[in-house]
Design a protein that fits this description.
The longest helix has 29 residues, at about 215-245. Strands 1, 2, 3, 4, 5, 6 and 7 form a seven-stranded mixed β-sheet that branches. The protein has helices spanning about 15-25, 25-30, 40-55, 100-105, 135-150, 175-195, 210-215, 215-245, and strands at about 15, 60-65, 65-75, 80-90, 120-125, 155-160, 165-170. It is of the alpha/beta class. The chain has one domain: Lambda Exonuclease, Chain A (Alpha-Beta Complex).
Length: about 250
């Protein structure tokens, strides 16, 4: 069993970088090591969705048995990350469970000025639609793990809201997803500490990347192929010349 690492405040890295890392380590390095970024319509659409969630950042909204908190600061010294949640919903827990909650402290938290106990439920806003990999789920799970560490309660579920389909995708934070999130956090710290940007690999997902024109995976790959070809040619010339001297 691996020993748990506890990071210091100065070691915390951006929570959102986990999503970049799982999507593509090269993209993550370009953004967070080389400080490269380029807006395109899709990323601007995503920024607009996030702007909508941040409009009331200093406030919370109470809707009966639902409390909505926007742009809530998050951090985890176990994962070594910090950031903000787009939205954290707090759902009122039915009164009959309050005795159990007081005993275990695992079911909910108190909210200032409101009676009862409330269960946190993180919601992350994304443009587009659900992806084939776990990059969005890992980012959301990291938010849940931050909430657990900060509030001392279990956070078992959350949701991703996708702008293209205007629908929520529910996410359960099971053991497999939590392990993937811990692994991604460790790898993120290793990548950033190395300061090395991985080489480009052309994949179908590159078409949706905002850094495609900067990364140039096809061009980089072609250049490497040309270098190998030229090296081979020069080696052959050298051998021919050596043979001519004998």
């Amino acid at each position: 069993m691996e020993e748990e690492v506890k990071y210091e405040e100065a070691d915390l890295v951006q929570l959102s970088a986990l999503q970049h890392l799982v999507f593509c380590e090269r993209q993550c390095a370009l953004i967070h090591i080389e400080q490269v970024w380029k807006d395109k319509p899709l990323t601007l659409e995503g920024a607009f969705l996030h702007h909508r969630t941040d409009e009331e950042a200093p406030r919370r909204e109470v809707r009966g048995n639902l409390v909505i908190c926007r742009s809530l600061p998050l951090r985890s010294f176990s994962l070594g990350i910090s950031g903000r949640a787009d939205v954290v919903e707090f759902h009122r827990i039915p009164g009959e469970r309050e005795h159990e909650i007081r005993t275990t402290r695992q079911g909910g938290v108190r909210l200032e000025g409101l009676p009862g106990f409330w269960s946190p439920f993180p919601v992350e806003y994304k443009r587009g639609k659900p992806k084939p990999d776990l990059c969005d789920e890992v980012q959301l799970c990291a938010q849940a793990m931050c909430l657990e560490e900060m509030l001392g309660v279990a956070v078992e579920e959350g949701a991703l809201f996708y702008g293209a389909i205007q629908r929520r995708h529910d996410v359960k934070f099971d053991a497999a997803l939590r392990d993937a999130t811990r692994s991604a956090a460790r790898r993120l710290h290793e990548l950033l500490a190395s300061g090395v940007t991985p080489l480009a690999r052309k994949e179908p997902k590159c078409r949706s990347c905002s850094l495609l024109d900067v990364c140039l995976p096809g061009t980089v790959g072609a250049r490497h192929s040309a270098q190998r070809y030229l090296t081979g040619v020069l080696a052959g010339i050298s051998e021919d010349r050596g043979g001519g001297k004998n």
